């Protein structure tokens, strides 16, 4: 019985002081706070080319007799701004945090999760966790040079975690812009275009013609051009996310702050 108790105590000592669920979600949430602005940077690169693509859409001649080009162009621009702003809010919320959590801690991804025993021989640290009210130290961060379940390990592998997060954001942006079930950007843009074009048509007494074949043709032309702009954005700007000089501050300027946040967890 005594041997069994000692064995259980040893097991507790090696596994109980890892970053537990509350810690994991707290760390993922902290990262999400810093990567929301990164998503905004990526989406801001889309605004001008997306508007330009809509301006190139051909308006059916019959509609031009009813709808002046100026208000229609302005309506398309408002549709883009509204759709992209709404998308940033959506993409920077729970989906971002969940994606970050998964690439850090889930066992169902291609990555090694930050879980498991942190007492492999030779032991890197002299304690299992800080005392109440204390944080892990930067020195402990620098020593924890293999992936396991404690905050110093997460801190040590910060660059790898950031690469995982950027790759996941790129993957999410591609899904959001495609014809998949998760295409919240493409779907939001289509809805916003319909709304704002409808407002322009109502202003000029043609609100009842939203389902007219001419209007449908115009909306389809807008959406087709938008898809082309999204494809180009994915292949250029999204592929270069966090690699452009103007992204440096947003992508790498938070390293000291996030390390402190990580190390405060027991």
Note down, in words, how this protein is organized:
The structure is a single chain. This protein has 266 residues and is an all-alpha fold. The protein has one domain (19-109, 159-263). The protein contains twelve helices and no strands.
* Broad structural category: mainly alpha
Q: Report strand %.
A: under 5%
Net shape = elongated
What's the SSE pattern? HHHHHHHHHHHH
What percent of the residues sit in helical stretches (DSSP H or I)? Answer: 55-70%
End-to-end Cα distance:
31 Å
The largest sheet, given as strand count, sense and whether it forms a barrel, is:
none
Name the assembly state. single chain
Q: What's the structural domain tally?
A: 1
Average predicted local confidence, pLDDT:
91
- Segments where pLDDT lies below 50 for 5+ residues? 1-16
SSE diagram, text form:
Layout: H1 2-15, H2 21-55, H3 61-64, H4 69-91, H5 94-105, H6 138-143, H7 151-156, H8 158-176, H9 184-203, H10 213-238, H11 248-252, H12 255-263
